[in-house]
Design a protein that fits this description.
Two copies of one chain form a homodimer. Chain A is an alpha/beta fold. Helix content of chain A is 23%, strand content 20%. The interface between A and B is large, with 79 and 79 residues.
Chain lengths: 262, 262
Protein backbone atom coordinates (compact mmCIF):
# COMPACT_ATOMS: atom_id res chain seq x y z
CA UNK A 1 0.00 0.00 0.00
CA UNK A 2 2.93 2.37 0.56
CA UNK A 3 3.88 4.17 -2.62
CA UNK A 4 7.07 6.15 -2.99
CA UNK A 5 6.60 9.00 -5.48
CA UNK A 6 7.51 7.78 -8.94
CA UNK A 7 10.19 9.90 -10.62
CA UNK A 8 8.81 11.93 -13.50
CA UNK A 9 9.35 10.15 -16.82
CA UNK A 10 12.12 11.28 -19.16
CA UNK A 11 9.65 12.96 -21.47
CA UNK A 12 7.93 14.95 -18.72
CA UNK A 13 7.15 18.63 -19.06
CA UNK A 14 8.02 20.92 -16.15
CA UNK A 15 5.75 23.88 -15.41
CA UNK A 16 7.33 26.78 -13.53
CA UNK A 17 5.26 29.59 -12.02
CA UNK A 18 6.56 33.14 -12.32
CA UNK A 19 4.97 36.26 -10.85
CA UNK A 20 4.62 39.87 -11.93
CA UNK A 21 7.89 40.58 -10.09
CA UNK A 22 9.72 38.39 -12.63
CA UNK A 23 13.12 36.74 -12.12
CA UNK A 24 13.87 38.24 -8.65
CA UNK A 25 10.87 36.35 -7.28
CA UNK A 26 11.84 32.98 -8.74
CA UNK A 27 13.43 30.69 -6.14
CA UNK A 28 16.73 28.98 -6.90
CA UNK A 29 15.18 25.55 -7.60
CA UNK A 30 12.96 27.00 -10.30
CA UNK A 31 15.81 29.08 -11.72
CA UNK A 32 17.92 25.94 -12.11
CA UNK A 33 15.12 24.28 -14.09
CA UNK A 34 14.81 27.31 -16.37
CA UNK A 35 18.58 27.52 -16.93
CA UNK A 36 18.74 23.82 -17.86
CA UNK A 37 15.81 23.92 -20.29
CA UNK A 38 16.24 23.32 -24.01
CA UNK A 39 12.89 24.92 -24.83
CA UNK A 40 10.74 27.30 -22.79
CA UNK A 41 7.09 27.83 -23.77
CA UNK A 42 5.00 30.67 -22.43
CA UNK A 43 3.04 33.81 -23.09
CA UNK A 44 5.15 36.60 -24.61
CA UNK A 45 4.83 38.58 -21.36
CA UNK A 46 6.14 35.68 -19.28
CA UNK A 47 9.01 34.91 -21.69
CA UNK A 48 10.13 38.55 -21.54
CA UNK A 49 10.71 38.13 -17.79
CA UNK A 50 13.57 35.63 -18.38
CA UNK A 51 17.14 36.97 -18.18
CA UNK A 52 19.76 36.25 -20.86
CA UNK A 53 21.29 33.47 -18.72
CA UNK A 54 18.25 31.39 -19.71
CA UNK A 55 19.59 30.31 -23.09
CA UNK A 56 16.70 28.02 -24.07
CA UNK A 57 14.79 28.42 -27.31
CA UNK A 58 11.75 30.52 -26.43
CA UNK A 59 8.45 29.53 -28.00
CA UNK A 60 5.61 32.03 -27.46
CA UNK A 61 2.14 30.52 -27.19
CA UNK A 62 -0.05 31.05 -30.23
CA UNK A 63 -3.66 32.17 -29.91
CA UNK A 64 -5.82 30.16 -29.59
CA UNK A 65 -3.54 27.92 -27.56
CA UNK A 66 -5.54 24.73 -26.94
CA UNK A 67 -5.73 23.30 -30.45
CA UNK A 68 -2.04 24.05 -31.09
CA UNK A 69 -0.73 22.65 -27.80
CA UNK A 70 -0.29 18.93 -28.63
CA UNK A 71 1.57 19.72 -31.85
CA UNK A 72 3.81 22.32 -30.23
CA UNK A 73 4.86 19.96 -27.43
CA UNK A 74 5.38 17.04 -29.83
CA UNK A 75 7.59 19.18 -32.08
CA UNK A 76 10.09 19.44 -29.20
CA UNK A 77 9.78 15.88 -27.89
CA UNK A 78 13.01 14.45 -26.49
CA UNK A 79 14.29 17.87 -25.41
CA UNK A 80 14.04 19.38 -21.92
CA UNK A 81 10.73 21.23 -22.12
CA UNK A 82 9.67 23.85 -19.59
CA UNK A 83 6.43 25.81 -19.55
CA UNK A 84 6.33 29.23 -17.89
CA UNK A 85 3.06 29.96 -16.12
CA UNK A 86 1.67 33.11 -14.58
CA UNK A 87 1.47 32.82 -10.78
CA UNK A 88 0.31 29.42 -9.52
CA UNK A 89 0.14 27.08 -12.54
CA UNK A 90 -2.65 24.99 -10.92
CA UNK A 91 -4.90 27.97 -10.11
CA UNK A 92 -6.93 28.85 -13.21
CA UNK A 93 -3.74 28.11 -15.09
CA UNK A 94 -1.95 26.14 -17.78
CA UNK A 95 -1.13 23.33 -15.31
CA UNK A 96 -4.62 21.92 -15.50
CA UNK A 97 -4.61 22.00 -19.31
CA UNK A 98 -1.30 20.15 -19.44
CA UNK A 99 -2.21 17.49 -16.86
CA UNK A 100 -5.49 16.88 -18.72
CA UNK A 101 -3.53 16.48 -21.96
CA UNK A 102 -0.50 14.48 -20.79
CA UNK A 103 -1.63 12.93 -17.50
CA UNK A 104 -0.47 14.08 -14.06
CA UNK A 105 2.60 11.81 -14.05
CA UNK A 106 4.02 13.45 -17.17
CA UNK A 107 3.76 16.98 -15.77
CA UNK A 108 5.92 18.32 -12.97
CA UNK A 109 4.65 21.55 -11.45
CA UNK A 110 6.68 24.04 -9.40
CA UNK A 111 4.15 26.30 -7.67
CA UNK A 112 4.39 30.03 -7.16
CA UNK A 113 2.18 32.38 -5.13
CA UNK A 114 -1.03 33.19 -6.99
CA UNK A 115 -2.44 36.68 -7.51
CA UNK A 116 -5.04 35.73 -4.88
CA UNK A 117 -2.28 34.98 -2.35
CA UNK A 118 -0.78 38.42 -3.09
CA UNK A 119 -4.18 40.08 -2.72
CA UNK A 120 -4.76 38.41 0.66
CA UNK A 121 -1.27 39.49 1.75
CA UNK A 122 -1.95 43.07 0.77
CA UNK A 123 -5.41 43.26 2.30
CA UNK A 124 -4.69 41.26 5.45
CA UNK A 125 -7.50 38.86 4.52
CA UNK A 126 -7.34 35.18 5.50
CA UNK A 127 -7.48 33.11 2.33
CA UNK A 128 -9.76 30.53 3.94
CA UNK A 129 -12.45 33.16 4.61
CA UNK A 130 -12.49 34.69 1.13
CA UNK A 131 -14.69 33.70 -1.81
CA UNK A 132 -12.85 33.79 -5.12
CA UNK A 133 -14.79 34.26 -8.35
CA UNK A 134 -13.17 34.32 -11.76
CA UNK A 135 -15.04 36.14 -14.52
CA UNK A 136 -12.39 35.29 -17.12
CA UNK A 137 -14.36 33.58 -19.88
CA UNK A 138 -17.27 33.16 -17.46
CA UNK A 139 -20.45 35.20 -16.94
CA UNK A 140 -20.21 38.10 -14.51
CA UNK A 141 -23.47 36.92 -12.93
CA UNK A 142 -21.48 34.19 -11.14
CA UNK A 143 -20.71 36.87 -8.57
CA UNK A 144 -24.37 37.18 -7.57
CA UNK A 145 -24.39 33.88 -5.64
CA UNK A 146 -21.49 35.09 -3.49
CA UNK A 147 -23.16 38.32 -2.34
CA UNK A 148 -23.98 38.14 1.35
CA UNK A 149 -23.49 40.80 4.04
CA UNK A 150 -19.97 40.94 5.49
CA UNK A 151 -18.56 38.41 3.00
CA UNK A 152 -15.28 39.22 1.28
CA UNK A 153 -14.83 38.44 -2.41
CA UNK A 154 -11.88 38.54 -4.75
CA UNK A 155 -12.96 38.84 -8.38
CA UNK A 156 -10.37 37.87 -10.98
CA UNK A 157 -10.88 40.51 -13.66
CA UNK A 158 -11.43 39.68 -17.32
CA UNK A 159 -10.37 43.04 -18.72
CA UNK A 160 -10.09 46.78 -18.05
CA UNK A 161 -13.86 47.13 -17.69
CA UNK A 162 -14.40 44.48 -15.02
CA UNK A 163 -14.43 46.83 -11.97
CA UNK A 164 -17.20 49.01 -13.46
CA UNK A 165 -19.18 45.89 -14.41
CA UNK A 166 -18.81 44.48 -10.89
CA UNK A 167 -19.96 47.80 -9.40
CA UNK A 168 -23.02 47.86 -11.69
CA UNK A 169 -23.93 44.28 -10.75
CA UNK A 170 -23.58 45.08 -7.04
CA UNK A 171 -25.86 48.12 -7.38
CA UNK A 172 -28.45 46.09 -9.31
CA UNK A 173 -28.40 43.37 -6.64
CA UNK A 174 -28.90 45.68 -3.67
CA UNK A 175 -25.23 45.71 -2.65
CA UNK A 176 -24.38 49.28 -3.66
CA UNK A 177 -22.82 50.20 -0.26
CA UNK A 178 -20.15 47.49 -0.75
CA UNK A 179 -16.56 48.72 -0.73
CA UNK A 180 -14.52 47.97 -3.86
CA UNK A 181 -10.77 48.15 -4.32
CA UNK A 182 -8.91 47.49 -7.57
CA UNK A 183 -5.53 45.83 -6.99
CA UNK A 184 -3.33 45.99 -10.09
CA UNK A 185 -0.12 44.13 -11.04
CA UNK A 186 -0.09 42.22 -7.76
CA UNK A 187 3.35 41.20 -6.55
CA UNK A 188 5.15 43.23 -9.21
CA UNK A 189 7.06 46.52 -9.17
CA UNK A 190 4.04 48.35 -10.63
CA UNK A 191 1.63 47.01 -8.02
CA UNK A 192 -0.89 49.59 -6.86
CA UNK A 193 -4.41 50.05 -5.54
CA UNK A 194 -5.73 52.10 -8.43
CA UNK A 195 -9.29 52.80 -7.27
CA UNK A 196 -11.30 52.55 -4.10
CA UNK A 197 -14.95 53.47 -3.53
CA UNK A 198 -18.38 52.01 -2.89
CA UNK A 199 -20.23 50.44 -5.80
CA UNK A 200 -22.80 53.26 -5.45
CA UNK A 201 -20.11 55.92 -5.94
CA UNK A 202 -18.09 54.07 -8.58
CA UNK A 203 -16.79 56.19 -11.46
CA UNK A 204 -13.21 54.94 -11.72
CA UNK A 205 -11.43 54.75 -15.07
CA UNK A 206 -10.60 51.42 -16.72
CA UNK A 207 -8.20 49.20 -14.80
CA UNK A 208 -4.92 47.58 -15.79
CA UNK A 209 -5.86 44.29 -17.49
CA UNK A 210 -3.97 42.43 -14.71
CA UNK A 211 -6.10 43.13 -11.66
CA UNK A 212 -8.27 41.76 -8.89
CA UNK A 213 -11.36 43.51 -7.54
CA UNK A 214 -11.63 43.13 -3.75
CA UNK A 215 -15.22 43.45 -2.52
CA UNK A 216 -16.45 43.87 1.05
CA UNK A 217 -20.15 43.09 0.74
CA UNK A 218 -22.69 45.44 2.33
CA UNK A 219 -26.38 45.18 1.61
CA UNK A 220 -28.34 48.38 0.96
CA UNK A 221 -31.01 49.25 3.55
CA UNK A 222 -34.31 47.81 2.36
CA UNK A 223 -32.76 45.51 -0.24
CA UNK A 224 -34.26 41.99 -0.18
CA UNK A 225 -32.51 39.45 1.97
CA UNK A 226 -31.41 36.54 -0.23
CA UNK A 227 -30.04 33.54 1.67
CA UNK A 228 -27.69 30.91 0.38
CA UNK A 229 -30.31 28.11 0.29
CA UNK A 230 -33.15 27.37 -2.20
CA UNK A 231 -36.47 29.13 -1.78
CA UNK A 232 -35.60 32.76 -2.50
CA UNK A 233 -38.44 35.29 -2.08
CA UNK A 234 -40.69 35.48 -5.14
CA UNK A 235 -39.66 39.14 -5.57
CA UNK A 236 -36.12 37.93 -6.36
CA UNK A 237 -37.33 36.78 -9.76
CA UNK A 238 -38.47 38.68 -12.84
CA UNK A 239 -41.83 37.03 -13.50
CA UNK A 240 -45.32 37.63 -14.90
CA UNK A 241 -47.19 35.90 -12.06
CA UNK A 242 -46.68 32.44 -13.61
CA UNK A 243 -44.06 31.51 -11.00
CA UNK A 244 -43.80 28.36 -8.92
CA UNK A 245 -44.06 29.83 -5.45
CA UNK A 246 -41.26 30.05 -2.91
CA UNK A 247 -41.93 27.04 -0.71
CA UNK A 248 -42.77 24.54 -3.46
CA UNK A 249 -39.48 25.59 -5.08
CA UNK A 250 -37.60 24.85 -1.84
CA UNK A 251 -39.32 21.47 -1.48
CA UNK A 252 -38.66 20.51 -5.10
CA UNK A 253 -34.95 21.25 -4.74
CA UNK A 254 -34.84 19.32 -1.45
CA UNK A 255 -36.30 16.31 -3.28
CA UNK A 256 -33.90 16.66 -6.22
CA UNK A 257 -31.02 17.05 -3.73
CA UNK A 258 -28.48 18.49 -6.15
CA UNK A 259 -24.82 18.02 -5.24
CA UNK A 260 -22.11 20.53 -6.19
CA UNK A 261 -21.54 20.44 -9.94
CA UNK A 262 -25.05 19.12 -10.66
CA UNK B 1 -10.40 58.31 -5.35
CA UNK B 2 -7.09 57.01 -6.64
CA UNK B 3 -4.92 55.74 -3.81
CA UNK B 4 -1.25 54.90 -4.19
CA UNK B 5 -0.24 52.16 -1.78
CA UNK B 6 0.94 53.74 1.44
CA UNK B 7 4.45 52.67 2.45
CA UNK B 8 4.45 50.41 5.49
CA UNK B 9 5.06 52.39 8.67
CA UNK B 10 8.48 52.31 10.32
CA UNK B 11 7.30 50.00 13.06
CA UNK B 12 5.74 47.46 10.67
CA UNK B 13 6.28 43.74 11.06
CA UNK B 14 7.20 41.74 7.94
CA UNK B 15 5.91 38.18 7.62
CA UNK B 16 7.91 35.88 5.33
CA UNK B 17 6.60 32.50 4.19
CA UNK B 18 9.01 29.58 4.09
CA UNK B 19 8.23 26.06 2.88
CA UNK B 20 9.32 22.56 3.88
CA UNK B 21 12.18 22.90 1.36
CA UNK B 22 13.70 25.64 3.52
CA UNK B 23 16.17 28.29 2.37
CA UNK B 24 16.60 26.99 -1.23
CA UNK B 25 12.94 27.74 -1.88
CA UNK B 26 13.04 31.30 -0.52
CA UNK B 27 13.19 33.89 -3.33
CA UNK B 28 15.83 36.59 -3.24
CA UNK B 29 13.47 39.36 -2.12
CA UNK B 30 12.46 37.37 0.96
CA UNK B 31 16.09 36.40 1.66
CA UNK B 32 17.07 40.05 1.70
CA UNK B 33 14.39 40.79 4.29
CA UNK B 34 15.58 37.93 6.48
CA UNK B 35 19.24 38.97 6.20
CA UNK B 36 18.38 42.54 7.20
CA UNK B 37 16.24 41.60 10.20
CA UNK B 38 17.25 42.45 13.76
CA UNK B 39 14.86 39.87 15.23
CA UNK B 40 13.21 36.85 13.62
CA UNK B 41 10.23 35.22 15.34
CA UNK B 42 8.93 31.79 14.38
CA UNK B 43 8.30 28.21 15.33
CA UNK B 44 11.48 26.32 16.26
CA UNK B 45 11.13 24.20 13.10
CA UNK B 46 10.95 27.30 10.89
CA UNK B 47 13.84 29.05 12.65
CA UNK B 48 16.03 25.97 12.14
CA UNK B 49 15.63 26.41 8.38
CA UNK B 50 17.56 29.71 8.42
CA UNK B 51 21.25 29.62 7.39
CA UNK B 52 24.01 31.24 9.48
CA UNK B 53 24.06 34.27 7.16
CA UNK B 54 20.80 35.32 8.84
CA UNK B 55 22.40 36.91 11.89
CA UNK B 56 19.22 38.16 13.56
CA UNK B 57 18.28 37.30 17.11
CA UNK B 58 15.98 34.28 16.83
CA UNK B 59 12.94 34.20 19.10
CA UNK B 60 11.03 30.90 19.13
CA UNK B 61 7.28 31.18 19.66
CA UNK B 62 6.10 30.09 23.08
CA UNK B 63 3.08 27.85 23.52
CA UNK B 64 0.35 29.04 23.74
CA UNK B 65 1.29 31.81 21.34
CA UNK B 66 -1.71 34.15 21.26
CA UNK B 67 -1.60 35.57 24.79
CA UNK B 68 2.18 36.11 24.59
CA UNK B 69 2.22 37.72 21.14
CA UNK B 70 1.59 41.41 21.98
CA UNK B 71 4.24 41.39 24.69
CA UNK B 72 6.82 39.60 22.54
CA UNK B 73 6.42 42.05 19.67
CA UNK B 74 6.45 45.06 21.99
CA UNK B 75 9.67 43.86 23.65
CA UNK B 76 11.43 44.31 20.30
CA UNK B 77 9.72 47.53 19.20
CA UNK B 78 11.93 49.87 17.19
CA UNK B 79 13.98 47.02 15.74
CA UNK B 80 13.49 45.38 12.33
CA UNK B 81 11.09 42.57 13.17
CA UNK B 82 10.41 39.65 10.84
CA UNK B 83 8.05 36.73 11.44
CA UNK B 84 8.73 33.40 9.71
CA UNK B 85 5.56 31.57 8.67
CA UNK B 86 5.00 28.08 7.35
CA UNK B 87 3.89 28.17 3.70
CA UNK B 88 1.44 30.95 2.85
CA UNK B 89 1.18 33.22 5.92
CA UNK B 90 -2.41 34.22 5.03
CA UNK B 91 -3.70 30.65 4.62
CA UNK B 92 -4.60 29.26 8.03
CA UNK B 93 -1.51 31.08 9.22
CA UNK B 94 0.06 33.63 11.52
CA UNK B 95 -0.62 36.45 9.02
CA UNK B 96 -4.27 36.67 10.04
CA UNK B 97 -3.39 36.74 13.74
CA UNK B 98 -0.93 39.57 13.20
CA UNK B 99 -3.18 41.68 10.98
CA UNK B 100 -5.99 41.26 13.52
CA UNK B 101 -3.61 42.41 16.28
CA UNK B 102 -1.73 45.24 14.55
CA UNK B 103 -3.99 46.20 11.65
CA UNK B 104 -3.29 45.36 7.98
CA UNK B 105 -1.20 48.51 7.39
CA UNK B 106 1.32 47.55 10.08
CA UNK B 107 1.92 44.07 8.64
CA UNK B 108 3.74 43.41 5.37
CA UNK B 109 3.30 39.87 4.07
CA UNK B 110 5.54 38.11 1.53
CA UNK B 111 3.56 35.09 0.33
CA UNK B 112 4.89 31.61 -0.36
CA UNK B 113 3.18 28.59 -1.96
CA UNK B 114 0.90 26.85 0.53
CA UNK B 115 0.85 23.12 1.21
CA UNK B 116 -2.42 23.07 -0.75
CA UNK B 117 -0.68 24.58 -3.79
CA UNK B 118 1.98 21.85 -3.52
CA UNK B 119 -0.70 19.16 -3.20
CA UNK B 120 -2.51 20.43 -6.31
CA UNK B 121 0.82 20.51 -8.18
CA UNK B 122 1.58 16.92 -7.21
CA UNK B 123 -1.89 15.57 -7.95
CA UNK B 124 -2.57 17.57 -11.11
CA UNK B 125 -5.72 18.98 -9.51
CA UNK B 126 -6.96 22.46 -10.37
CA UNK B 127 -7.10 24.50 -7.17
CA UNK B 128 -10.38 26.14 -8.14
CA UNK B 129 -12.14 22.75 -8.31
CA UNK B 130 -10.92 21.42 -4.95
CA UNK B 131 -12.63 21.76 -1.58
CA UNK B 132 -10.19 22.40 1.25
CA UNK B 133 -11.13 21.44 4.81
CA UNK B 134 -8.88 22.04 7.79
CA UNK B 135 -9.42 19.81 10.81
CA UNK B 136 -6.68 21.57 12.79
CA UNK B 137 -8.45 22.66 15.97
CA UNK B 138 -11.78 22.01 14.27
CA UNK B 139 -14.16 19.04 14.38
CA UNK B 140 -13.54 16.28 11.84
CA UNK B 141 -17.27 16.28 11.06
CA UNK B 142 -16.71 19.45 8.98
CA UNK B 143 -15.68 17.07 6.20
CA UNK B 144 -19.18 15.56 6.00
CA UNK B 145 -20.69 18.59 4.25
CA UNK B 146 -18.08 18.30 1.49
CA UNK B 147 -18.82 14.65 0.62
CA UNK B 148 -20.44 14.42 -2.79
CA UNK B 149 -19.69 11.98 -5.61
CA UNK B 150 -16.72 12.93 -7.81
CA UNK B 151 -15.72 15.88 -5.60
CA UNK B 152 -12.06 16.23 -4.66
CA UNK B 153 -11.10 17.24 -1.12
CA UNK B 154 -7.84 18.21 0.51
CA UNK B 155 -7.96 17.70 4.28
CA UNK B 156 -5.32 19.56 6.29
CA UNK B 157 -4.35 17.00 8.90
CA UNK B 158 -4.32 17.75 12.63
CA UNK B 159 -1.95 14.94 13.65
CA UNK B 160 -0.63 11.48 12.79
CA UNK B 161 -4.07 9.91 13.25
CA UNK B 162 -6.01 12.14 10.85
CA UNK B 163 -5.94 9.79 7.81
CA UNK B 164 -7.47 6.90 9.78
CA UNK B 165 -10.09 9.24 11.25
CA UNK B 166 -10.96 10.56 7.79
CA UNK B 167 -11.27 6.99 6.47
CA UNK B 168 -13.58 6.04 9.37
CA UNK B 169 -15.77 9.09 8.77
CA UNK B 170 -16.00 8.31 5.05
CA UNK B 171 -17.05 4.71 5.78
CA UNK B 172 -19.67 5.87 8.29
CA UNK B 173 -21.07 8.37 5.77
CA UNK B 174 -21.43 5.90 2.89
CA UNK B 175 -18.27 7.01 1.10
CA UNK B 176 -16.09 3.93 1.76
CA UNK B 177 -15.11 3.46 -1.90
CA UNK B 178 -13.43 6.91 -1.92
CA UNK B 179 -9.73 6.92 -2.77
CA UNK B 180 -7.41 8.40 -0.12
CA UNK B 181 -3.80 9.45 -0.49
CA UNK B 182 -1.60 10.81 2.29
CA UNK B 183 0.86 13.45 1.05
CA UNK B 184 3.60 14.11 3.58
CA UNK B 185 6.15 16.96 3.89
CA UNK B 186 4.85 18.65 0.75
CA UNK B 187 7.43 20.67 -1.13
CA UNK B 188 10.32 19.43 0.99
CA UNK B 189 13.14 16.95 0.41
CA UNK B 190 11.28 14.31 2.42
CA UNK B 191 8.06 14.68 0.45
CA UNK B 192 6.32 11.38 -0.22
CA UNK B 193 2.94 9.77 -0.77
CA UNK B 194 3.02 7.51 2.26
CA UNK B 195 -0.29 5.66 1.89
CA UNK B 196 -2.92 5.13 -0.75
CA UNK B 197 -6.11 3.04 -0.55
CA UNK B 198 -9.87 3.30 -0.39
CA UNK B 199 -11.45 4.27 2.92
CA UNK B 200 -12.97 0.76 3.03
CA UNK B 201 -9.52 -0.87 2.82
CA UNK B 202 -7.70 1.65 5.02
CA UNK B 203 -5.19 0.16 7.47
CA UNK B 204 -2.24 2.51 7.00
CA UNK B 205 0.06 3.41 9.90
CA UNK B 206 0.11 6.86 11.44
CA UNK B 207 1.18 9.67 9.12
CA UNK B 208 3.90 12.30 9.43
CA UNK B 209 2.34 15.17 11.41
CA UNK B 210 2.86 17.45 8.37
CA UNK B 211 0.47 15.98 5.83
CA UNK B 212 -2.58 16.48 3.65
CA UNK B 213 -5.16 13.77 2.94
CA UNK B 214 -6.35 13.89 -0.68
CA UNK B 215 -9.81 12.40 -1.12
CA UNK B 216 -11.58 11.48 -4.36
CA UNK B 217 -15.17 11.02 -3.22
CA UNK B 218 -17.09 7.94 -4.31
CA UNK B 219 -20.42 6.99 -2.78
CA UNK B 220 -21.04 3.37 -1.85
CA UNK B 221 -23.79 1.59 -3.82
CA UNK B 222 -27.05 1.92 -1.91
CA UNK B 223 -25.79 4.70 0.38
CA UNK B 224 -28.32 7.52 0.77
CA UNK B 225 -28.00 10.42 -1.63
CA UNK B 226 -27.47 13.61 0.37
CA UNK B 227 -27.57 16.81 -1.67
CA UNK B 228 -25.99 20.14 -0.82
CA UNK B 229 -29.29 21.93 -0.06
CA UNK B 230 -31.62 21.81 3.00
CA UNK B 231 -34.19 19.04 3.22
CA UNK B 232 -32.06 15.92 3.62
CA UNK B 233 -33.93 12.59 3.74
CA UNK B 234 -35.30 11.78 7.22
CA UNK B 235 -33.05 8.68 7.25
CA UNK B 236 -30.02 11.00 7.30
CA UNK B 237 -30.77 11.83 10.94
CA UNK B 238 -30.53 9.78 14.12
CA UNK B 239 -34.03 10.27 15.56
CA UNK B 240 -36.76 8.61 17.65
CA UNK B 241 -39.64 9.52 15.35
CA UNK B 242 -39.96 13.01 16.87
CA UNK B 243 -38.43 14.66 13.81
CA UNK B 244 -39.68 17.64 11.83
CA UNK B 245 -40.18 16.04 8.44
CA UNK B 246 -38.07 16.65 5.35
CA UNK B 247 -40.14 19.20 3.45
CA UNK B 248 -41.14 21.38 6.43
CA UNK B 249 -37.43 21.51 7.26
CA UNK B 250 -36.63 22.70 3.71
CA UNK B 251 -39.38 25.34 3.86
CA UNK B 252 -38.31 26.57 7.28
CA UNK B 253 -34.75 27.08 6.10
CA UNK B 254 -35.96 28.83 2.94
CA UNK B 255 -37.90 31.26 5.14
CA UNK B 256 -34.95 31.81 7.49
CA UNK B 257 -32.69 32.29 4.42
CA UNK B 258 -29.36 31.83 6.19
CA UNK B 259 -26.34 33.43 4.52
CA UNK B 260 -22.83 31.96 4.76
CA UNK B 261 -21.52 32.37 8.29
CA UNK B 262 -25.02 32.52 9.82
Amino acid sequence: MTAAPAPAPQDAVTVVGIGAEGWPGVPEASRAVLRAADVVFGGPRQLDLLPPECAAVRVPWPSPLRPALPGLLAAHDGRTRVVLASGDPMFYGIGRTLTALLGPDAVRVLPHPSSVAHACARLGWAREDVDVVSVVGRPLARIAAALHPRRRLLVLGAGPGTPAEVAALLRARGFGPSRLRVLEQLGGPRERTSSEATADAWDAPDADPLHIVAVECRRAPGAPRLGAVPGLPDEAYAHDGQLTKRYPRAVTLAALAPAPGE
